[in-house]
Amino acid sequence: MSTFEERMEIRTDLLSGKVPKRVPIYVNFQLDAACELAGIDLIRAHYDPELMEKAYSKLCDTFFADSLPVLNLRFAPAYQALGSKNWVMGSKGSMQHPEIEPMRADEYDDYTKDPYGYMMTEILPRICAALDTDPAGKAIALAKAYQQYNRAAASQGAIIGKLVQKHQYGPGLITGNLLAAPFDFIADQLRGFKAITMDLRRCPDKVEAAVNATLPLMMKQATLSKVKPGSSINFIPLHLAPYINMNQFEKYYWPTLYKMVCDLDKMGIPCLLFAEENWTRFADHLAQLPESSIIIFEYGDPAEMKEKVGKNHVICGFFDPTVTLTKSKEECLDYVKRLCDTCGPGGRFCFRFDKGVISIKGVNVSRLAACLEWVRDNTDYR
């Protein structure tokens, strides 16, 4: 059996509920970390495919994984062509998401009546400076940004193709589209964290109506042409739930998220959900999701989450790679062993960091590499 075939078998067993021959490893380093590791300027790498390829290659040669371990979802040239305010490049090249408030509190009704139309005519020109102009200017700006996006996507695609062939990587857990919980879309992209928490007290009915009106937008994004039922897995990072109370969560956050995930499951499209911060108090809700759902946990007790969620759902996360800076190699390996021994038996567990590694300076490279190799060599729970 080739390396690729073995990885495909392990992945298939993981997703079908069988106990794989070992725990799959699907870790995530950002382009930022890859460039630091290779000693490459991040800003230049955004625009130079050769530099990006060198950075990706160095990281792939350094860390073992079953799928490409580098993730870059934000193409800087396209955002800069739009004059984006919600995704901007920092002074050292990192793509950052500042708090913005493009929709005013008195505009909920306008948005709810026609979310897509209002986004196009009112919100996007406020988020993207290049679109704040006449129709002809908007068309030109969109065409330029689309060209930049396609060029960047094609370059990255070619790099990924080479590395997948070289290292015989299998597909990872994100093979579809990037989505948002409808509540998170309102909070992250339209109102901002501070404003949405005020709105929940000031105009909760309008928030609820806007969230419900956003669900069809997210479903459209979830089923774009490249998403193929039976093979695609959509990704949903979950943001705001840990910062609201249970009543607010159950009324405004959970219903549309639950419906979206369930409706996609019925179409044969599972979802990978990243439970950012601590979702322990929502564990019973996550357990209600379709069994095709995969949940990454940033914080929480692995044993408790395995018991409440991991019996019927694939779970991962919990491992903070920054511990490699403060613990010895033996302590790091013991940490990994305890996590795998807790979550690995019975299957439905893959090894993944609690969040992507943004800076390589935040980890000890040799110790982290040893942790991944230990998982590869010591996790047969059949």
Please, could you describe this protein's structure?
The protein has a domain at 21-84 and 128-172. The protein has 16 helices and eight strands. The radius of gyration is 21 Å and the shape is globular. The model has no long low-confidence stretch (mean pLDDT 95). It has 382 residues and is of the alpha/beta class. The chain has a four-stranded parallel β-sheet, with helices on one face. It is 52% helix and 7% strand. The relative contact order is 0.13. α14 (302-308) links the parallel β7 and β8 (314-317). It has helices at residues 3-16, 31-38, 42-47, 49-62, 76-82, 108-113, 115-127, 135-167, 182-191, 193-202, 204-222, 246-266, 283-286, 302-308, 329-343, 365-377, and strands at residues 29-30, 70-71, 88-89, 95-96, 234-238, 271-275, 294-297, 314-317.
Summary of the model, kept short:
The chain is α/β, with parallel strands linked by helices. The protein has helices at 3-16, 31-38, 42-47, 49-62, 76-82, 108-113, 115-127, 135-167, 182-191, 193-202, 204-222, 246-266, 283-286, 302-308, 329-343, 365-377, and strands at 29-30, 70-71, 88-89, 95-96, 234-238, 271-275, 294-297, 314-317. The protein is globular and about 60 Å long.
